[in-house]
Predict the 3D structure of the following.
Amino acid sequence: MNKMTKKQRVLAALNRQPVDRPPVANPTSVATVEMMDLVDAPFPEACRSAELNARLAGTEITEFDFDAIAPYFSIIQESSAIGCEMQWEQKDNWPTVRMSNPIWKNASDVKIPSNFLDHPDVKVITDSIRILRNEFGNDVPIIGKTMGPWTLAYHVFGVEAFLLGTIDNPEETMDSLNKLLEITYLFGEAQIDAGADVLTVPDHATGDLVSAQYYQNFLQDIHTEMAEKFSVPIILHICGRTVDRMPFIADTGLNAFHFDSKNSPQEAMDAVNNKIALVGNINNPETLYSKDVDDVKKEVFDCLNAGVQIIAPECAIPLKTKSENLIAITEGITDWLAENEKKN
Amino acid sequence: MNVSEVSKKFGKCLELVSMDPNFHNISVGLFLKNDILTIWSYSKKEGVNKRLNIIRDKMVEFGGLNRLNEEFKLSIPKGSLIPRPLKFLFVKSVEMDPSLKPETGDVSSKDNKSKLLFHISGSLENDKYIYRVSATGEHDKPNLRIRAVVGGFVKYGDCIKNDIDSFYFPDEKPHDEYVRVLLPYARNVSAVENMLNASEQAGQMTTQSLGFSQS
């Protein structure tokens, strides 16, 4: 097979088509403290300035030779823009929403500010995508990110209040989700307009908090609609144990699911039954954070042997991840290809 | 230097401090290749080279390692690489007040859970350099605290327990500097564990850290 560009490779993998080599692309984040120093773009400033954001995101290509760039590092930009109370933290920690102080109580409170797309914490991402597109050209895919309504609901209502609402008043919950979905579309479309080739939609209906039935009842239709409405491939991201809901996710028509290491690559592949591409699932808190290069490569081999289409860390990588372990992901793919060539 | 070059030139990153409190909050790494240690940062801030050499010199002063005649570099005597205490030494060297000087004389430290004062002395016994822990001061059962300190050295020093009140390092050689560095940690394992867990959790994005989990 002829050598593909990074963009051709990633798009083909997302469509479960043949590739010249399996791509490595994290749909969430590859920001680390070492790279913040290399390009002088530390957190939290790199989440709030387009220029710093693009500089840090670019290291994914310039330093690690991954196959895509994902400039939206965290999960809080939209929530900041709609008025959630923020904790911006410092260089070595993630900015978060103070969910203990929710801004809204029910669906009737949900109002999207008219200048939402002009808010600096939203604009930083769209502007960064434009900078990256200009700098890296059309052969490198840019993966944008827009939060799904379930994740936004945690941020604006608080986790506990929102989940209790799903039991007490499911209709009200659906109303809230549908209203919040407007934010998902607004921000997603703005990133596509700015040059994003792919969108990640984190929507944290995690196994830790809700059942597979919940996913089917509340989110499957919403995600199915997303697959139809968005004009670029969509990667759904849900952390945690999710194998029980993977068959539902696979039926949505979304292009790919970014899955956690709490699900083994083989069981995940079996669960989705080739109806959706999988992206993942190198373990973050143990393997990438504290283990060695050989351990990283072993997990890359496990994914490739199972047939996972895009190799990636399971979620945004720990900010203190050592660079050598990120290089090991790409090297692991090269080693696997060499080993398979020998076998054949 | 880019990431691949650093990896090839300096070897494996043993420890990474994400924010140096004494120099613009830069990240600093300790790398190891063929018994040569290198202190390195990707930061290009003015004065960074001087700062890396200061950290290197602190590791020499406080850890008894050998300073090399090359920037950022120091060496470990062959066969004496003991990773855990080396990591503690590195973190301490980055985070300590740069004007701090190593203590001299007896190795001793107050217990922070009682009124005891711990003392550690080493001697050669049957070709092994054994460190013995003793305590002075008031306590109903000082042996319990002494045993806990020995356990702390096993945990944080990669040491081997010799007896309820004694231990030795895996290379069976004297490492007085490591003993001095580790004693404040070894005497209070539960607090150190909390500190290490908090440090590990910082910068991790998980369902727990996001608040999207019951645990």
In short: Chain A has one domain: 6-343. DSSP finds 14 helices and eight strands in chain A. The domain at 6-343 of chain A is CATH 3.20.20.210 (TIM Barrel). Chain A has a mean pLDDT of 97.
